[in-house]
Amino acid sequence: xxxxxxxxxxxxxxxxxxxxxxxxxxxxxxxxxxxxxxxxxxxxxxxxxxxxxxxxxxxxxxxxxxxxxxxxxxxxxxxxxxxxxxxxxxxxxxxxxxxxxxxxxxxxxxxxxxxxxxxxxxxxxxx
Length: 127
What we know:
By secondary structure, the protein is an all-alpha fold. It has a domain at 49-97: 434 Repressor (Amino-terminal Domain). The chain has helices at 9-26, 39-47, 51-58, 62-69, 77-88, 90-97. This is Putative transcriptional regulator. It comes from Giesbergeria anulus.
């Protein structure tokens, strides 16, 4: 003879929910969850990099970026500006990921933007 177990209402509701989920799975029914990405997550997606790489580009720790993507933390004003740039012009952050080459540079590398691929060889005026 099977032993009966007394359950409180909360446990009974949980068991019923699990049984219903199993029956839905057997019938081939699926639940669809829609997730809205945070601004930080959208920007990282547009740049096309990992969380680790994006956190380095932004100059923040990986954990800080994760908290921003989860909506647990809001970026500062400067970080918000950089995230807006990443969303509008992801190619700018992609260029920053590329190694700097001083090959063929006639000025000091710290004064020449021409060494960065894709920026058209713009040189800053000397101060």
